[in-house]
Amino acid sequence: MTTAVAAAGVGTATRAGVEVRLESLQRRYAGVTALDGLNLTMAPGELVALLGPSGCGKTTALRLVAGLEQADGGRVVISGEDVTGQPANKRDVGMVFQAYSLFPHMTAWQNVAFGLQMRKVDAGQRRRRAGEMLELVGLSGFADRFAHQLSGGQQQRVALARALAIQPKVLLLDEPLSALDAKVRARLRDEIRRVQLEVGITTLFVTHDQEEALAIADRVWVMHSGRIEQLGPPTTIYSRPATPFVAEFVGLTNRLAGVVRRGSVEVRGASIPLVQPDAADGPAMALVRPEAVTIASDGAAATGPLVGTVIATAFLGATSRVTVDLGDITILAQLPTSEAAAHPAGTRVRLALRPDPVLIARDEAPAERA
Amino acid sequence: MTVAAKPLVETARRPLRDGRRLSLDWLGAVPFLAYVGLFLLLPTTIVVAGSFVGPNGLTLSNLTAMNQSYIVGAFVHSVVVSATSAVLGAVLGAVLAYAVATGNPNGVLRRLVTSACGVLAQFGGVTLAFAFIATIGFAGFITLWLQQHGINIYANGIWLYELSGLVLVYTYFQIPLMVLVFLPALDGIRPQWREATESLGGATWHYWRYVAGPLLAPAFFGGMLLLFANAFSAYATAAALISQGSIIASLLIANTLSSEVGLHQPGLASALALVMVVIVAIVMVLYTVLQRRTAKWLR
Amino acid sequence: MSRNRRLKLQVFRVIVFLVFGAFFLVPIGAMFEFSTRGNTETAPRTLSAWLTIAQSPDLVAAILASLVLAVVTSVGMLVLLVPTMIWVRLRLPRLSRVVEFLCLLPLTIPGIVLVAGLAPEYRWLSINVSESILTLAFVYLVLVLPYTYRTLHTGLAAIDVKTLSEAARSLGAGWATVMGRIIVPNMWSALLNASLLSVAVVLGEFTIANLLNYVNLQVSIFLLGKANAAVSIAVAVASLMFAFLLLVILSFFGRPRTRVARLEEA
Question: Are B199 and A95 a contacting pair, CB within 8 Å?
Answer without folding.
Answer: yes
